Amino acid sequence: MQDSRPVFGTAVLSAQVIVTTGSYFSYWDRTPFRRPAPSPPMDPSEVEALIESNLEGARAEVRRARGDHDEDHLAAVVVSPAFEGATLVEQHKMVYDALGEHMTRDVHALEVRTYTPAEAPE
Question: Rounded distance, CA 87 to CA 91, Å?
Fold first, then answer.
C-alpha cells in the first residue's frame, strides 16, 4: 500500500537558493543577481568629522576598536550637550543619525560611548 500523505521535504528543498561562485541564482528562474561591491571602510577621522558636524556641539574621538589591522570595527567616544536628558538609547540613536547612510554602507561596526559635558571623563 502506498503512502498518500504529501511530501513536504521536496517543497522545502526546491525553494532554497542555489549558491555558486560569485553569483546567486533563484531556483525557479535561474536569473543571476549580484550583491553590490562593499564600499571601502571609512577612516576614523571621517567618522569624527561627520559626528561633529551633524550633532550639536559634539566632540568625537574615533579609533579602530581592534587595532590598526582591523579597518571594519570602530569605537567612538562622543561628548555633546545634546545628550542632556536623553536616555542612553536615544543618545546612541543621535550618533547613528549623525552618520546617516554611512552607518549602513560604510561603517561595519561602531562601538559607541556617549557623555554629556558634565559626565565626560578627563
Answer: 6
**pLDDT for residue 60 is more than 90:** yes
- Span 52-69, mean pLDDT? 92
Helices (H) and strands (E) in the chain, counts: 4, 6
**Integer Cα distance of 59 and 115 in angstroms:** 10
Cβ 61 vs Cβ 115: under 8 Å = no
Size (the chain), residues: 122
Is 56 a domain residue?
Answer: yes
Total domain count for the chain?
1
Count of Cβ atoms closer than 10 Å to residue 53 Cβ: 10
User: 43-47, 104-108, 116-120: lowest mean pLDDT where?
Assistant: 104-108
Report field, pTM of the whole predicted structure over 0.85: no
Tally of CB atoms within 10 A around 58: 20
